[in-house]
Amino acid sequence: MRRVVCPGSFDPVTNGHIDIIGRAARQYDEVVAAVLTNVNKRGLFSVEEKVDMLRECTADVGNITISQFSGLLVDFCRENDIGAIIRSLRSVSDFDYELQIAQMNYRLAGVETLFMTANPQYSFLSSSLVREIAQYGGDVSSLVTPYVEQRLRDKYESRES
Ligand code: PNS
């Protein structure tokens, strides 16, 4: 069983994330999309909301499971018998950052990191930009699924009221 993890903040999951998770699912037996529970950084969405959106967006693919983790990613990998981490590269600056993390994760626990190049149609896309656009009422319909778009609308409307 070749099980890999696609870790992230997923605040919220974007079409770029879904593209990577789906492509990974075609290459490996099982893909675990794992949401970081970051005690130091409060996101727009709760971990439960992020997990819910990921479940909805990946519901039609059988070999994807959604999970959450806190602490070190390599510990999560060890506990769940995961041999490799999948990370997306959108740009050279992503590579600069990811290389160091990947090498440290390998040093810590021998866990491999496999890089997938982002689909060029999503190379400019990030959750933080999606949040900013949605916050000011901009159109994010080509950047996230309709379900996530609605969750963003609900979130910002409830914050205004
Ligand atoms: O979506 P993001 O924010 O780019 O994902 C970053 C993530 C969750 C993959 C990264 O922050 C992470 O693995 N955090 C867990 C703590 C950890 O293991 N850090 C690496 C130490 S070398």
From TrEMBL:
The keyword Magnesium applies. It catalyses: (R)-4'-phosphopantetheine + ATP + H(+) = 3'-dephospho-CoA + diphosphate. The record marks H17 as: Transition state stabilizer. Its EC number is 2.7.7.3. ATP binds at S9, F10, H17, E98, Y122, S123, F124, L125, S126, S127, S128. Its cofactor is Mg(2+). InterPro entries: Cyt_trans-like, PPAT, Rossmann-like_a/b/a_fold. Substrate binds at S9, K41, L73, R87. It is found in: Cytoplasm. Keywords: ATP-binding, Coenzyme A biosynthesis, Cytoplasm, Magnesium, Nucleotide-binding, Nucleotidyltransferase, Transferase. Pfam families: CTP_transf_like (PF01467). One of its GO terms (molecular function) is pantetheine-phosphate adenylyltransferase activity. Residues 5-132 form the Cytidyltransferase-like domain. Pathway: Cofactor biosynthesis; coenzyme A biosynthesis; CoA from (R)-pantothenate: step 4/5. PANTHER family: PHOSPHOPANTETHEINE ADENYLYLTRANSFERASE. NCBIfam families: coaD_prev_kdtB, cyt_tran_rel. Reversibly transfers an adenylyl group from ATP to 4'-phosphopantetheine, yielding dephospho-CoA (dPCoA) and pyrophosphate. Belongs to the bacterial CoaD family. Homohexamer. This is Phosphopantetheine adenylyltransferase. It comes from Streptomonospora algeriensis.
